[in-house]
């Protein structure tokens, strides 16, 4: 495998998205509010590294267990067995997972919050169980992936804000932590939509391998209806948040309306008339762009 193959195999755009979100929370949002934080630059880099390593391990074990369906759904992106041996892929999974957990434990121990290490164990365990078993259950697979993305955002507030919160700074700290929670939920909802879109894209290969995804079990029409309902829920939540900020920060309100709400409305309107794999792929990319644009509001907040 060459460098380009590894960049694709490691889902580099997804990893860069995780890193970007964590960076803007730490170095933009938290600094804007002059928060008392727990992690210095070194320990924050450990947090980012551990998150990325566990995500990488999850991608690899998923590819190992998805060879048959991927050969049908995305034959040009099959690396395990074609360009990378099954044994080497297993080794990469074990190494990345071990290093991610080790870094997570070190970080938790260094801030005297060993109990927080549970979040890394949960993320690692869910990634593994998802790949070998849980993805076979309707809807559960979509929720697990979305929850893992939620954790990758939420974990920054958990490790950097919570341990530094005291009676003297309680209100400011928890106000920002609450905002991190809202951003995490936004990431969860957008990821959930993308995962269902991907099920629509992969329906052919999933059928041939007896997978039980939403489009296969309840049909394409009802799956699109669920997407529309989830999209509307996301739209209402973002609209409420944007309007609530109007009196204190009109720029954020206008930004969210123009670059998040309007694209979301377009997505909701067009999904009913989307049928081909190429069209679904475009909508999946649109959701990724909306998520990225949604995170940029932090610079104006």
Looking at the overall shape, the CATH architecture is: Orthogonal Bundle
Count of β-strands: 0
Q: Which structural class do the helices and strands define?
A: mainly alpha
Count of DSSP helices? 13
The major sheet is characterized as:
none
What do the pLDDT scores average to?
Answer: 91
CATH topology: Farnesyl Diphosphate Synthase
Q: Any idea what the radius of gyration is?
A: 20 Å
N-to-C CA distance: 43 Å
Strand composition percent: under 5%
* Principal-axes shape call: globular
The secondary-structure element order is HHHHHHHHHHHHH
The figure for the number of domains is 1
Which stretches are poorly predicted, pLDDT < 50 over at least 5 residues? Answer: none
Range of helix content: over 70%
CATH uppermost class? Mainly Alpha
Q: What this model shows, in words?
A:
This protein has one domain (3-299): Farnesyl Diphosphate Synthase (Orthogonal Bundle). It has 13 helices and no strands. The chain is an all-alpha fold and 301 residues long. Helix content is 76%, strand content 0%. The longest helix is centred in the middle third of the chain and has 32 residues, at 170-201. The protein is globular. The mean pLDDT is 91.
């Amino acid at each position: 495998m060459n460098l380009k193959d590894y960049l694709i195999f490691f889902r580099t755009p997804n990893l860069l998205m995780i890193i970007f979100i964590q960076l803007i929370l730490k170095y933009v949002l938290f600094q804007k509010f002059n928060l008392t934080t727990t992690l210095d630059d070194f320990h924050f880099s450990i947090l980012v590294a551990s998150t990325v390593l566990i995500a990488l391990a999850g991608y690899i074990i998923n590819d190992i267990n998805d060879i048959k369906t991927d050969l049908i759904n995305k034959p040009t992106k099959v690396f395990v067995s074609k360009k990378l041996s099954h044994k080497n892929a297993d080794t990469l999974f074990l190494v990345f997972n071990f290093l991610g957990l080790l870094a997570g434990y070190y970080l938790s121990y260094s801030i005297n919050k060993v109990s927080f290490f549970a979040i890394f164990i949960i993320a690692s365990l869910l990634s593994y169980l998802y790949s070998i078993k849980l993805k076979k259950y309707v809807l559960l697979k979509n929720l697990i992936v979305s929850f893992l993305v939620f954790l990758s955002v939420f974990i920054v507030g958990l490790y950097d804000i919570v341990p530094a919160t005291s009676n003297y700074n309680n209100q400011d700290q928890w106000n920002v932590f609450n905002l991190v929670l809202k951003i995490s939920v936004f990431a969860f909802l957008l990821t959930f939509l993308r995962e269902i879109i991907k099920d629509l894209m992969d329906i052919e290969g999933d059928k041939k391998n007896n997978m039980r995804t939403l489009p296969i079990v309840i049909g394409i029409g009802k799956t699109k209806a669920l997407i529309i309902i989830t999209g509307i829920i996301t739209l209402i939540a973002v609209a409420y948040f944007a309007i609530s900020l109007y009196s204190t920060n009109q720029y954020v309100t206008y930004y969210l309306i123009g670059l998040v709400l309007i694209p979301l409305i377009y997505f909701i309107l067009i999904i009913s008339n989307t049928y081909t794999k190429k069209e679904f792929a475009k909508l999946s990319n649109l959701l990724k762009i909306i998520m990225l644009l949604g995170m940029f509001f932090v610079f104006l907040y």
